[in-house]
């Protein structure tokens, strides 16, 4: 059997953890998928999958081979797309990820624009408030807020956002506006755990850097909940500037202690292209970068 065919079948079985599901995905019969994996294991002289009546799991050697096989198959796809011409129209499935609120506000419009431009493309948009491993989870493009660790991914810086303190005008009229971080001790604090997971909030930078211990009256894992609590007049919240932009424009929130803000947080577009740029990834990345860099609210 063709080596790339065997590799493709193995990847599908390992990802689906099922011969039957992988066969449906590839348009094969289950016995054909089983024979392909058996032939690959015979060729390599190593067991790649553990099989029982209840599950199919990659062995330790199978997991290592799975990572390499994914990379090789993607590079083959990229080489073929490059051979078809750099101006080939994007086609096929593209997986994209971003934080929930940022994805809804800024990435989803790019996705819709992209799909309107390229009828042969399909997009899976994963908007999640956790770090998605692009390689392990098979995602093509990610938008990430925050400093990046060293990795093999390509990263393009497109914007910055700020960590800001905000409260409703009604709350500030009643309780007074804090003039320094130490004043927060006399206020009701709303803590958005995804933005500031600790009770030690950092302010300023360089020689002016300082830390203030806060005691939240409300701690929530939902950024939307923290925004609504602050906008309702409950207290002071720390959020990212883009998250409260609509409320600032409407006058339902206002920023406080702006002179004590820590350094801005970078926003990057990440992708896992190899030497050859696939049309679907290249065009989506280019569109995303241009759109986010052109958004005045992200600088």
Word description of this protein:
This protein has 299 residues and is of the alpha/beta class. It folds into three domains: 3-83, Winged helix-like DNA-binding domain superfamily/Winged helix DNA-binding domain (Arc Repressor Mutant, subunit A, Orthogonal Bundle), CATH 1.10.10; 92-151 and 269-298, D-Maltodextrin-Binding Protein, domain 2 (3-Layer(aba) Sandwich); 163-260, 3-Layer(aba) Sandwich (D-Maltodextrin-Binding Protein, domain 2), CATH 3.40.190. It is built from nine helices and 14 strands. The chain has helices at residues 3-16, 19-26, 30-44, 60-83, 100-117, 169-175, 223-231, 241-250, 279-293; strands at 49-51, 56-58, 92-98, 121-127, 141-145, 154-161, 163-167, 189-192, 200-203, 210-213, 218-220, 236-240, 254-256, 265-271. A five-stranded mixed sheet has the order 4-3-5-14-6, covered by helices on one side. The protein has a five-stranded mixed sheet with strand order 11-8-12-7-13. The protein has a two-stranded antiparallel ribbon with strand order 1-2. α2 crosses α3. The longest helix is centred in the first third of the chain and has 24 residues, at 60-83. The chain is elongated and about 75 Å long. The termini are far apart. The relative contact order is 0.15.
């Amino acid at each position: 059997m063709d080596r790339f065919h065997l590799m493709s079948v193995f990847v599908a079985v390992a990802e689906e953890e099922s011969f039957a599901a992988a066969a449906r995905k590839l348009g094969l019969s289950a016995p054909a998928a089983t024979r392909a994996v058996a032939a690959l294991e015979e060729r390599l002289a190593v067991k790649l999958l553990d099989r029982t009546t209840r599950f199919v799991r990659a062995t330790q050697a199978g997991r290592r081979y799975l990572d390499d096989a994914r990379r090789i198959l993607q590079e083959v796809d990229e080489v073929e797309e490059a051979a078809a011409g750099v101006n080939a129209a994007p086609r096929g499935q593209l997986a994209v990820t971003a934080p929930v609120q940022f994805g809804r506000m800024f990435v989803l419009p790019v996705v819709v624009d992209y799909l309107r431009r390229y009828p042969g493309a399909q997009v899976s948009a994963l908007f999640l408030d956790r770090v998605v491993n692009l390689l392990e989870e098979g995602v093509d493009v990610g938008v990430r807020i925050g400093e990046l660790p060293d990795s093999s991914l390509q990263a393009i810086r497109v914007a910055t956002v700020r960590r800001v303190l905000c409260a409703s005008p009604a709350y500030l009229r009643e309780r007074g506006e804090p003039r320094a971080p130490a004043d927060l001790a006399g206020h009701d604090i709303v803590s958005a755990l995804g933005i500031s997971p600790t009770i030690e909030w950092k302010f300023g930078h360089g020689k002016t850097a300082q830390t203030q211990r806060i005691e939240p009256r409300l701690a929530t894992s939902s950024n939307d909940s923290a925004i609504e609590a602050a906008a309702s007049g409950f207290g002071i919240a720390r959020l990212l500037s883009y998250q409260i932009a609509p409320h600032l424009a409407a006058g339902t929130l206002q920023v406080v202690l702006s002179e004590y803000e820590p350094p801005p947080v970078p926003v990057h577009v990440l992708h896992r292209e190899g030497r050859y740029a696939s049309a679907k990834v290249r065009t989506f990345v280019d569109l995303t970068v241009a759109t986010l860099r052109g958004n005045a609210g992200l600088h």
